[in-house]
Amino acid sequence: MVLRKEEVVGIVVLTSMILGLIAPIVAYSVAKPAEAPEAMFQFPFTGKLKYVTSETYSVSEEFEIVLDVGGGGAEILESEKENEVKVEIYEYPAFFSFFKKPAVKEYNIEFADNVLHVTISGYVAKVYVPPKFVKRVSSVVSGGGLSVKIDAKNVETCDFKVTGGGIELDLSNLGNSTISINISGGGFSGKLSYGDYVGEAKIIIYISGGGGRMDIENMGAKVKVDAAISGGGGAVEVNGVTVLSLGGASVTKTHADEGFDEAAKKLLLSIDVSGGGFQIGIRK
Amino acid sequence: MIDILADLGGLIVSPRQTFKIIFAEKRGLLQPTLILLVMMTVLSLVTIANVAIRFMGFLSPFMGGFGDVLSAFLGLISVAGIVIGGAILWLILGLLTHVFAKIFGGKGDIEKAFIILGYATVSFFIYVILGFIGLFTNFLISIGLLIVGLLISAILWIIVASVGVSEAYGISLGRGLASVILPLIVLSLIPFLMTLPFMSMTWW
């Protein structure tokens, strides 16, 4: 039987209808999850930054970093020089600026009483620090982004508050420190790697409308996880095994490794989510 | 079965000849309505498969089993929304196409406009095929394929519908084309005109 061209095209049309009907089933098995273009998350901003100014300080003892970010971005990185703190301020290209009123733009850099205080609004700050002197890091991000990538061997506390923004952490060589992340409408991604220590390291995460993902490596530590969810969902994996999976209206769950109380090296993870999601992976 | 295949393919390969047969046989609204509903359903399923399911896959680690339930629910809502929206659009475009065909001196009843636009949705088979291929690619490529598929299908839809209007209303192909394009322009201007006051406020 020889088919006419109309019939051949008709078969193609009919086949497309069948393919359309099975598309969702096929998608579940073959479609790769959406990945936002990496450029969107390049920190702090894509496009060319315009240098504004910089300040340099010489340090010889431990100090604290305080960052206030209100619209804009900040990045904490390791300094190339052992005793030097350098803060660079940049302007970032505005998109469709002709549609917007001029934003409030200001910056301030202070280093006094062993506290480096950087305030930016509408700017990008790159803060280069010698890791061995960083004792505390605290930041309030309100409509902006923060990235921290340092060797955190001497860091005792990190306190990040984010309102409408994002935070990206890459902290290595952590000891028995306390990392606190408070997200209210925003997101975080973190990579925390712990070195040798004795005592209890704490990670406290509070999310209210938002989400995040964190990978933690703490070899030899005993782990305890306290998780509470009120609207949303999340999961905690330890060595690839899901130890906690939460979802729904209001759920509280706890996981503790055997011998946690007696262990010399502990990791306590506390998560409280109110409308949002999280995924935590722990390797130990 | 061969007749159905010949109709479906004929609308793409030789639309004028196929519409002549359709109108000579005095076919009613049932077949074009079914074709429209089936095409809208598969079109929405392919779109959801490419967009929503991928995003649900991204969210499911955060949401556990709740993500799957939410995914299914949103999927159903989206399919229903697109099918209902497509049907409403068909009615509005059919009415406007008939009005413009009459203005351009055409002779024919409004039922013919609905029949033509219903059959013409067969053109979206290209969108469905490219969308299905998109499932095997990454998200950005699949979105690109959907956009290309939509553009080609829309152009093909305009051509098929224009030929149908020209045949049904006894007007030139140019007037048939105008009768199909002008309703689209009118519809696209309505939201623009509605947002104009807000846009001027934003500029201030």
What would your notes on this structure say?
The complex is a heterodimer of chains A (284) and B (204). With 284 residues, chain A is mainly beta. Chain A has two domains: 48-138, no CATH class; 152-284, no CATH class. Chain A contains one helix and 14 strands; from the N terminus they run H-E-E-E-E-E-E-E-E-E-E-E-E-E-E. Chain A has one helix at 5-30, and strands spanning 50-58, 63-78, 84-91, 106-112, 115-121, 123-129, 134-151, 157-174, 178-194, 199-217, 222-238, 241-248, 251-256, 265-283. In chain A, strands 1, 2, 3, 4, 5, 6, 7, 8, 9, 10, 11, 12, 13 and 14 form a 14-stranded mixed sheet that branches. The radius of gyration of chain A is 24 Å and the shape is globular. The relative contact order of chain A is 0.11. Residues 34-46 and 95-102 of chain A have low confidence and may be disordered. Chain B is mainly alpha-helical and 204 residues long. Chain B has one domain (18-191). The chains are: A mainly beta (284), B mainly alpha (204). Chains A and B meet through helix 1, strand 11, strand 12 and strand 14 of A and helix 1, helix 3, helix 4, helix 5 and helix 7 of B.
Percent range for β-strand residues of chain B:
under 5%
Q: For the terminal residues of chain B, how far apart are their CA atoms?
A: 62 Å
What's the shape of chain B?
globular
SSE order of chain B, one letter for each helix or strand: HHHHHHHHH
Largest interface: A-B, 44 and 52 residues
Which secondary-structure class do the elements of chain B indicate?
mainly alpha
Largest sheet of chain B: none
Report the radius of gyration of chain A as a whole number of Å: 24 Å
Q: What composes the largest sheet of chain A? A: 14 strands, mixed
Low-confidence stretches of chain A: 34-46, 95-102
Number of helices, counting only DSSP H or I runs of 4 residues or more of chain B: 9
**Number of beta strands of chain B:** 0
End-to-end distance of chain A: 67 Å
Q: What structural class do helix, strand and pairing data of chain A support? A: mainly beta
Shape of chain A: globular
